[in-house]
Design a protein that fits this description.
The protein contains 15 helices and 13 strands. By secondary structure, the chain is of the alpha/beta class. The chain folds into three domains: 129 residues, Rossmann fold (3-Layer(aba) Sandwich); 107 residues, Phosphorylase Kinase, domain 1 (2-Layer Sandwich); 176 residues, Transferase(Phosphotransferase), domain 1, CATH 1.10.510.10.
Amino acid sequence: MDVEPHTISFSDVQPETFLAELLVVLQTATSQPEISVARTSLKMLILDANKVQADAIASLVNAAGYTTVTAINALDAFTLFLKGSYIPLAIVLGQERVPDPLFLQRLLQQTLQKYHLKPPVVRLVRETTNEDVSRKPSQSLRQPSQPLLPFSPSDHPPQTGNIEQVEREKIILTGQTTGRYQLDTLLGGGLQGNVYRAYDRLREQDIAFKAMQVSTMPYFVIRVSAEDTNLFEQEYEMLVKLHHEHILVPLNTGRSYISGSSFVFKTMPYFPERSLALWLSRHGQKEFAPQEIAPIILQIAEALQCAHDNQIIYQNFKFSNFMIRNQSNDLRKLDIMLSDFSITQDGSFFSNTSDALSYVAPERWNGQVLPASDQYALAAIAYELLAGRPPFQGGSEYAMRFLHLNMQPQLLTTFRPNLLPAINHVLLRGLAKRPEDRFPTVTAFAKALQRYA
């Protein structure tokens, strides 16, 4: 081959460790000024006869935002290229020797001739360990890696427990009556409780009723909430002093004993449109223009700034926690309310549900929480609304932690080439790995985004 391949070490035990070096190569390849083809056609070719290894590499690279194609040999790869299935952005060789190098050479030559591209070639070199030498032939090459849990400052890592067991233990309260509340319809819920549409006989109106079963409370709540303390009452006391139009303060809180179990609850106004997650699902649009998202990003930022000015950090980012107070088919006209603030402010709060991991700032994975952590999360929300996908996508908590801590998100203009390049700079600053490299305040981030909308 005329191309000198890059060499990157690869380990069966921790295959994720090679990803940082590989993504540097991919980012360099993506920035080639000669690229004139549609970027959706560019894919990283994985050339490896070991399908399990090839699929593992593809999964990691796909999670970082790149598209891959796999082939067991160079002939198959060249055939796919001739069929127009892909244009190689880069080529990864998962084996020591390519059995048919002629076809690999022809692939590189035709890519240069047709598209004026020089895809880098990366050779993965397997690391040899003492375990590899002593392993018996019948033993599996791949050992399961230990799950990475966030470190709490008080040396007590959050315990997620057995999710399936918690779900089995949860009691559904539909049709129950507690005090002045008649619980009618289950609207949704998760590990931290269920939300019902209920009728408040005192107010004579429908309200949203969120109940948390004490026996299924997550660890980070139990640490700060004794048996005789209502965590929702703590939330109310924390928020009632803020008086901000985009912060949802509970109407009422209490404790009840239903169906043999103890519950704490809070009531909130019932909004027919419910959450931004449901609104986005109903409207089906995945990508929005900057001028469409700027108003709601500013609303959220101003609510967060009010909280930050009172030493409160939100932390609980997901689209289902952004409530919609009005009805509109225009994203710009939605009136957003922030709900479900974290009552713990020491870094121990950690929601490991799949709809929350996309917005967890790097420092939060290590048990540190700052106002800048909320800015990072809001920047990730803005990125997702503009790109139609979050900055990072991974199939596990481990993968998401690795991506947030080590990887740079792809430029937004990779997906939306018609957008102003300045928006790249605003989002990448908001998503900076180090808190001190982000904007000085969350409203400064939102106003910078609005400036280029």
